[in-house]
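Weekend entry, working from home. Most of the wet-lab plans are on hold until the incubator is repaired, so I used the time to fold the two sequences that have been sitting in the queue since the last round of cloning. Logging both here for the record. First:
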Amino acid sequence: QAQLVESGGGSVQPGESLKLSCTASGRLTGFLYVGWYRQAPGKQRERVATISRNGRIHYEDSFKERFTISRDLAKNTVYLQMNNLEPEDTATYYCWTPLSWGQGIQVTVSS
């Protein structure tokens, strides 16, 4: 079972950006998909974006304009660039593969 370690979270003001990283214990191409989910307080966990083994990217509609998923295969790392952050983006963000979850990382957007 792969281990996923997120980093890059924190507290920012509205309109600012953050870039999350998720480093896997194995090669990213070993996973059919890698992606990001988030869970806001009092809400269900929701999918943000995924990237497949062959590089195909999918975004949920709500995130297409401001979020970008990418990967660095040499570093076994997947990224989530988040721009123009809003208070509603405050959540715990999780890295995901079909067989494992990261521990989650907090993103807080507040003025």
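Second, folded right after the first finished:
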Amino acid sequence: QVQLVESGGGLVQAGDSLRLSCAASGRTVNNYVMGWFRQAPGKEREFVAAISWSGGRIVYADSVKGRFTISRDNAKNTVYLQMNSLKPEDTAVYYCAADGIYRRPRVVVSTYEYNYWGQGTQVTVSS
């Protein structure tokens, strides 16, 4: 089993930056696609960013492209989401996820493709 724990959320002002971390335990996630998703009140969970097991392929949602950066440190079994130029519309609970598929050759963006999820961390951006 894989346990994922997100951290780094908080309350910030528009234009500020935050760095989210997702620490994995129980099993290494080094061979899995890792993704970040978010869910705002009253909305469905949406894709934010994902990174292949090797780190060589990265996909971003259009809404965060150029502002957010996903990365992974396989030595630490940890994935990060650097969020710059935050906007009020970025306010949501952010979730880390692992697909659980050994060295999948592509990056996936659907929630249905991910088998392990963290509990989420709240990000609130005030205007």
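Plan for Monday: verify the second prediction. DSSP finds no helices and eleven strands in the chain.
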